[in-house]
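Supplementary Note 2. Why include the ligand at all?

Several targets in our set were suspected to adopt different conformations when bound, so apo predictions alone were not considered sufficient. For every target with a known small-molecule partner we therefore ran a joint prediction. The input for 2-acetamido-2-deoxy-beta-D-glucopyranose is given below.
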Amino acid sequence: MQKQMKQLALIFSVILQVHGYEGSPSPHSSAVGDPGMKRDGLRVAFEAWNFCNEVGFEAPHMGSPRAADCFDVSSTSGYSLMHKVTDLDNKLGIGMEKPGIISEAALQNPDLYAVEKELYLGSLCQVSDKPNPWSFWMVMLKNGNYDTKSGLCPQNGKKIPPFNQLGKFPCFDTGCMNQPVLNHGKTELLSDGQTMRGWFNGTYELEAGLGNGLNGISYYEVVWEKRVGIGGWVFKHKLKTSKKYPWLMLYLRADATKGFSGGYHYETRGMLKTLPESPNFKVRLTLDIKQGGGQKSQFYLVDIGSCWKNNGKPCDGDVTTDVTRYSEMIINPKTALWCNSKSLYNCPPYHTFRNGTRVHRTDNRRFPYEAYHVYCAPGNAEHLEVPVGTCDPFSNPQAQEILQLLPHPVWGEYGYPTRLGDGWVGDPRTWELDVGGLSSRLYFYQDPGTTPARRIWTSVDVGTEIYEDEEAIAEWHLSDFDVVITSARRSQILQKIFNYGDKKGVYVSVIIKSNTVNFQSFEN
Ligand SMILES: *[C@@H]1O[C@H](CO)[C@@H](O)[C@H](O)[C@H]1NC(C)=O
Ligand SMILES: *[C@@H]1O[C@H](CO)[C@@H](O)[C@H](O)[C@H]1NC(C)=O
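The joint prediction is reproduced in token form.
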């Protein structure tokens, strides 16, 4: 037996060498199209979501809330930027025809129009690459207002009629779910001839004049800047809430380049040309938080989003059984400790240490309560361990499950912050987070007796969710963002080997024969 294992190990290492030699993806390859945000020819887009990740109604004269800024840098006689998206493209909105791009069904439907516009912008920005082409980084802005009388949002993916709420969700009045003003400063070369800069900004107060500055109104801004040929892009973010818009989110996302992305049930475009799967990926980024955004700012050092069904099967677009899964590390040290031994419904049923040891949440000597802010379960799960809190059923197009973490020594082994305040205001850091390793050990609900879901993440984000506060301001710089695949999966390698052409097939079979291990035992 032991001898056999040795032979297997030998073969495996030989095959790994073959694998590398043949120019397949190296074991440490980037999953994003623009590793570390270093590419001069930037690809960035904007999307705005209402409470349940749709559009609902477009803001007057703003078009569909999707836009992009993409260009290549030409260096014939000084630098110049060759833009790929026109102002007209960015202004596209309901009622505007675009044959072959916008379908008849989308023409008067703001939700569908945004989807088709995003695909179109994605095609304009697309960069050919292996294993897949990619389109852009995504700036995502979300308004947390919910008018329950609007009938706009489903409940755990099921359509529901309008209803009266009892102050559970912020909403000043009819129209509180509006889309924002979007201003766009197309990337340009500054007068030094070398610095490139562009921006998106705006407010949700559609009637606001700028005379009074930002007092009393909401505000968002993303400015990106880089010197041609030097360093990487720095994305400078600002987010401010107001009395009318006390719950806002602003993230920079690396989304899947096709298929769904976290929390979005439509075909999407993005930056993840390879989808990272737990445990084999890391996330690298530099984060410099200038202003925290107050006590209620849930600043996500990193947020990962995916989708799988409660039976472990991949999502297929059926919103009644698809479940969005999120996990987030909140680094605001003022975050309340909702999970504790007296509020077990806010904690996941168990914690798994890196060595695989599991401790149940009732084991109050060993369970690391302070490592969790809150856990909430999918509203459509049928075999939950009580006590349990279920996630908000309205704020996603389908049911969702969320696990929010806080800095704690148990996460240290994954390169995550271990103390409250690490990486917070005045403590800028470059992080290398073993997001894959950590997320492979997190608790997520699954129906008993079903095969564990493959944890494939379609969205990796950084940014803040201010929930809920008035006149709170957050400000941060993000750079060096990368998602790195750390090791090829065994099954993938095997599949590659089996798919190899004749020559390689012979080579592999020769190795197998000379080690006198037959194919069957190798497969086992
Ligand atoms: C958006 O940014 C531009 C350029 O920095 C600035 O002139 C404008 O005032 C900003 N918009 C708002 C609403 O502050
Ligand atoms: C696993 O790690 C935990 C926490 O460090 C420790 O308490 C436990 O004894 C370890 N278990 C084993 C089997 O090593």
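The chain has one domain: 29-488. The longest strand covers residues 473-485. Comparable summaries for the other entries are listed in the accompanying table.
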